[in-house]
Structure formats: C-alpha cells, structure tokens
Write a structure and sequence with these properties.
single chain; Cytochrome Bc1 Complex, Chain D, domain 2; 2 domains; 13 helices; 34% helix
Length: 340
C-alpha cells in the first residue's frame, strides 16, 4: 500500500521535532570552572584544564599512602581537609618513619591564584610542586620512578588514568598533572565572609567592627579576597635555628627572615601559626603584632614590624571577623575527602 506523501512528510516532521527536543549529550568529563570573584588565575598551564576525571584521579593519588617509602604517608597526611588542607594542628610535619620536618605545612587552598609555593617560594609551578614532598627524605622519601612503580602496582589506576588522559601513558607527567587538577579544585569561597559579600547574610556587630579593623591594620598583607598578597614579608619570628626564609633562595640580604604571606582563609582551623608553628592561637598572634616592639633587635634581619594598638574589645572583634573566613563547605565536601 502506497503511503500518501503528506503522511510521509508528517512522520518526518514529527521525527525531526522529537530529535530537536532531545537533550544534548551529557559530558562525561565536564571541565571545572573557577569563581569569577577571585580574578584571573596564576596557574600557567592552559593545556591542563581541570576536569572531573582528572580531579578524581588526582584525589586518589593525593590520598594514596602507598606512594611513600614505607606506605604510611600521603599528601593528605599533612594537608588534611578537616583543617582546611593544612596539617593536623602540628607545629611541623612528620613524614616516613616519624621523621620530623623543618616547617609547618600550610594550607593548599586557592592554589590557582598563587604564583609561588612553599614558605620560601622556591617552587614556581604547581605541576612540579609534588616532586618536593615525594622525594624529600623527611616526607615521603621516594623517587619519581619509584612512585610510578607503586602506581602501576594498583589495578584501579588503569581505568582512572584512561578516563583522565585518554590515549596518554601512565607516567610522571600525567601523574603530576592529575595532582595539579585536584589541588586546583580546592577552592575556598563559601565562608560567611563570602556570603556577606554576596548579600546572602550579614555580619554581627562584632564581626563588622572586626572587618573595619582588619581593613585598617591587616589588609595590606592579607589582601582581599584571597587574604594574601602572595609576597614575602618579615613575620617577627627569628628562630634560634635561624631559618633564613626567602634568603635561602635568593641570597638577597633584604630577603632574610621573610616568608610567604599565608592566606587567612580558614585560619581559625589551621593553627598553629607561622612558618615554624610556634604560635598556637589567634590571640597569641595578636600578642605578637599588637603594641609589639620586642622583636629581637640584636639579630641582623631586614624586616620591621609596625606595632598597632587595639583595645581588648577590638582584639575580640578582629578575631570574630577572622573566624568568618572559615569555609565549612570546603572542610565537609565529600568530593575532596579521603577515599576509603
């Protein structure tokens, strides 16, 4: 039986309409997006755009204790989610065989906007930063070939690498790129401070007063919205061990005892403070900077602290504001959590 031409046209029209209404195929590996409020990123590798599969691979690598010499230490051992990806409230970190490090492990949030890494800025590219803890004898104690051997021992990684880097080998390059992708995804931008800036809530009177004090006394170094200026400043700590800080890298006299300005985001939960973890509480930090002229003047350092004056109530208000920088979403997000 011959089908009338108008019927054929009707069937074709309906078919085209159905096809046009079908949703676009879901991306199996969607790319990660950065929050606009932080501005342009500093991460210099445009070919390594974080995507779901790469972030997930990096997460597995980040928490894998088998990538240390005695299979006890992972990147997450010294950068704990519950502490804003800083250490477990230890003055300095401990690595394999309980070996003691020399500096406090800082938070690794919002790394996409950081031009340098480590307290002394000796590393200038995120893609190579993991090499330092992997190979340090006091941290993970491995070689990069040794790390790759451990990765290839574990069958789970074959599928993870294939998803993250199709048609590429499981090698040192893809491993470091995946770790970068995970670290780039550790964005902290949902604290109470951020909610206030978005008009979703308001500061208390104490927090509001503290914010004004912060802008007056602290913002030049801990600049909004990232709460660091990414510079190297004298922090008033001249340890007996004489850690020279930035000077160790540059050999410039003016860099002696200067350390990278840490972000104040999540600082409520990243104690103890300073490069050597020598100050335990926020109140003790203020003791160092408020009306403080007791810096060790007999030492040859290039920096100088300018004392500020705060009343007792102003100190409480300033700390109240600093606590609004704690991002509870970050520290509870299962996408960043250790894999069990």
């Amino acid at each position: 039986m011959k089908i009338p031409q108008y019927t054929v046209l009707l069937i074709v029209s309906i078919g085209l309409a159905i096809l046009s209404c079908k949703p676009e195929p879901t991306k199996t590996n969607p790319e990660f997006t950065y929050p606009a409020e932080f501005g342009s990123i500093a991460y210099p590798n445009p070919s390594n755009k974080p995507a779901q599969a790469g972030i997930e691979l990096g997460r597995h690598l980040f928490y894998d204790v088998n990538l240390s010499l005695n299979r006890t230490i992972s990147c997450g051992s010294c950068h704990a989610q519950v502490h804003g990806f800083a250490d477990h409230n230890l003055p300095v970190s401990f690595g394999i065989y309980n070996r003691k490090g020399i500096r406090n492990s800082p938070s690794i949030i919002n790394m996409a906007w950081s031009p340098t890494f480590m307290w002394d800025g000796r590393i200038r590219h995120l893609d190579v930063m993991p090499i330092a803890p992997f190979t340090d004898t006091n941290e993970m104690g491995m070689t990069l070939p040794g790390v790759m051997e451990r990765i290839k021992e574990n069958s789970k990684y074959l599928n993870l690498y294939q998803k993250a880097f199709p048609n590429k080998e499981i090698n040192e390059e893809t491993t470091l790129l995946a770790l970068s992708q995970f670290m780039l995804s550790l964005i902290s931008n949902n604290s109470k401070y951020d909610q206030v800036k978005k008009g979703k809530t308001k500061f208390t009177n104490s927090e509001s007063n503290g914010y004004e004090l912060f802008k007056t006394h602290c913002n030049s170094c801990h600049s909004e919205p990232l709460f660091t200026n990414h510079q190297f400043e004298y922090n008033g700590i001249v340890a007996i061990e004489s850690d020279p800080g930035r000077y160790r890298i540059t050999q410039l006299p003016n860099d002696k005892y200067r350390f990278k300005v840490p972000t104040l985001r999540n600082t409520e939960i990243t104690y103890p403070y300073m490069h050597n973890g020598s100050i335990r509480t926020l109140d003790e930090v203020l003791n160092k900077y408020v009306e403080s002229s007791h810096i060790e003047s007999n030492r040859n350092y290039s920096g100088k602290l300018i004392p500020i004056t705060l009343s007792e109530s102003e100190r409480k208000d300033l700390i109240a504001f600093i606590k609004t920088l704690t991002d509870y979403d970050l520290i509870s997000n299962p996408k960043f959590s250790e894999i069990h």
